[in-house]
Write a structure and sequence with these properties.
Layout (H helix, E strand, L loop, with lengths): L2 H44 E5 L18 E5 L2 H4 L7 E5 L7 E8 L4 E5 L2 E5 L9 E2 L4 H7 L1 E6 L4 H7 E2 L5 E5 L5 E6 L7 E6 L20 E9 L5 E7 L3 E8 L5 E6 L10 E4 L9 E9 L2 E6 L2 E7 L14 E7 L3 E10 L20 E2 L4 E5 L13 E6 L5 E5 L1 E3 L6 E3 L2 E2 L3 E5 L5 E5 L13 E3 L2 E3 L3 E10 L5 E2 L2
Antiparallel strand pairs: 1-2, 2-34, 3-4, 3-34, 4-24, 5-6, 5-23, 6-7, 8-22, 9-12, 10-11, 11-22, 12-21, 13-18, 13-22, 14-15, 14-21, 15-16, 16-17, 18-19, 19-20, 24-33, 25-26, 25-32, 27-28, 29-30, 30-31, 34-35
């Protein structure tokens, strides 16, 4: 082989190597471009990720500027399905469209809504009368949004006594061979055949301390496990909001029933009604019970299976609560082991802002326009939602009008300040598009710094809705589907 042949082969090998590098670069650049385009398409039309910066949807979603839940939003969902009441949705804030909010749908187009005693009522557009129906959450949704008030594994009599009233002489804590507490054993001997625990606190809607202050909640849930230690006897549980009382009696001989009565218990319209239940507790067999009332219905579940549902309210009627809340459970004529006791409360919507009660104490109704929706946060006491949205109206002498939120982010970004910012000769006003305007006071028609015009703006249009929130994906410990 001569020198020229060797040189030619080296040149050919070099060209092949260069071609391989170019081919690799081309393939990878094409893959990156395709992935980038697909990501843009998915973000624009399919799924987008948002962070929850505030606590308006607590406890359903955790909000914090740094550590708030990261959620995924389905942006095409409502192209296939209608918007439903109680959906959790992302939308552009109508008074500053550069921001996105997350709330729960409370009111639908062309209907009236109002709030009373924590519940939501609606009057359909085709009703023709002023009849307001109770908005009832689906059972599966309700089971996801119960707010814990009290949880006790029954490990110490002193701790139990802080939240429950009971006869300590009639009970004892049981432990297993490893010294772990297995529950609280009640004996009926010497107690007239009946032993019970009565929840000592009142349930309110304060998120940080639901037992201390706030509005008295009417809808709650009691859950516990029980094991009968005798062949005969009954397990019972009772809940009352002060107006409607329900008592469950699960009898080993088959005489199980639910008794519903109006408070105060008595004759006539307050006479109790009884509903039989096809269930018998068995000695040494553990059962898990859930007794709950919400949205005008009572539910009884045993081991996750619904034994009974009683509807007792469908429409609005002025309500009085002549008695106190009551949550209790216990045993009749049977020794019984109890454990894993929990008390929960429902969401409580407060009648604030444009839903505030009238001077006569009657609920105030809000008419929702066509193609519009009314939004409420789950953390009702601390949620800036449709109840409170107001816009500032700035009319200029040249005939144009600017509108925007009554509050805006501070320049430092550390809180909210009034909008507009009033200075000596001008105002700084942020409009609905998030743009700041420096306007001389002399250019504003009838400017009065102490009486700047505002008007209610409580609705979100369908065009402003981004999509349906369907999952928390970060942090992993809070990952869940959103209901």
């Amino acid at each position: 082989m001569n020198e020229n042949d060797s040189t030619d082969k080296m040149e050919i090998a070099g060209e092949k190597e260069n071609d391989g590098i170019l081919k690799w670069l081309k393939e990878n650049i094409e893959a990156v471009i395709i992935a980038f385009v697909m990501a843009l398409v998915i973000k624009c039309f399919c799924i987008e990720v948002f962070k929850i910066p505030t606590g308006s949807m607590e406890p359903t979603l955790h909000g914090d500027p740094v550590s708030g839940d990261r959620i995924m939003v389905n942006k095409f969902y409502y192209n296939l399905d209608p918007i439903k009441r109680f959906d959790v949705i992302i939308f552009r804030y109508p008074l500053e469209t550069t921001k996105t909010y997350i709330k729960r749908v409370a009111g639908l187009p062309n209907e009236k809504i109002m709030v009373s005693e924590g519940d939501l009522y609606f009057n359909p557009d085709n009703d023709g009368q002023e009849t307001f129906f109770l908005a009832k959450k689906p059972f599966e949704l309700q089971q996801k949004i119960w707010i814990p008030v009290h949880e006790n594994a029954f490990v110490d009599l002193v701790e139990i006594g802080k939240e429950w009233n009971f006869d300590k002489s009639a009970c004892s804590l049981l432990t297993d061979e490893k010294g772990r507490t297995t529950g609280l054993l009640f004996k009926t001997a010497g107690t007239a055949g009946k032993s019970s625990l009565l929840f000592a606190s009142k349930i309110h809607d304060s998120l940080n301390s639901p037992l201390v202050s706030g509005n008295r909640v009417q809808d709650f849930k009691l859950a516990f496990s029980a094991v009968m230690q005798s062949d005969t006897g009954s397990i019972f549980a009772s809940i009352s909001d002060g107006a409607n009382a329900f008592e469950v009696k699960l009898d080993s001989q088959g005489n199980s029933m639910i008794t519903h009565s109006r408070e105060p218990m008595g004759r006539g319209e307050n006479a109790p009604s009884e509903t039989p239940i096809d269930f018998k507790p068995v000695k040494n067999e553990k059962i898990s019970l859930e007794i709950m009332k919400f949205d005008g219905a009572f539910h009884l579940l045993c081991n996750g299976r619904e034994l009974c549902k009683l509807d007792y309210k469908d429409k609005y009627a002025p309500e009085t609560f002549p008695a106190e809340q009551r949550i209790s459970f216990g045993t009749i004529n049977s020794d019984c082991l109890f454990n894993r006791v929990s008390v929960y409360r429902d969401l409580y919507y407060t009648a604030q802002g444009n839903l505030q009660q009238t001077m006569t104490g009657m609920p105030k109704a809000m008419q929702i326009p066509e193609n519009s929706y009314y939004m409420l946060g789950d953390n009702s006491l601390s949620s800036k939602d449709s109840r409170a949205w107001e816009e500032v109206v700035i009319k200029l002498k040249n005939g144009s009008t600017l509108t925007g939120d009554t509050q805006r982010d501070s320049f430092e970004g550390d809180g909210k300040i009034d909008n507009p910012i009033i200075r000596n000769k001008e105002i700084i006003f942020r409009d609905v598009y998030g743009c700041d305007h420096s306007i001389e006071k002399s250019a504003i028609a009838d400017f009065d710094p102490y009486n700047i015009p505002t008007r209610q703006h409580p609705f979100v249009t369908k065009d402003e809705i981004v999509g349906k929130a369907f999952a928390v994906w970060w942090p992993p410990k809070r990952a869940k589907l959103i209901r």
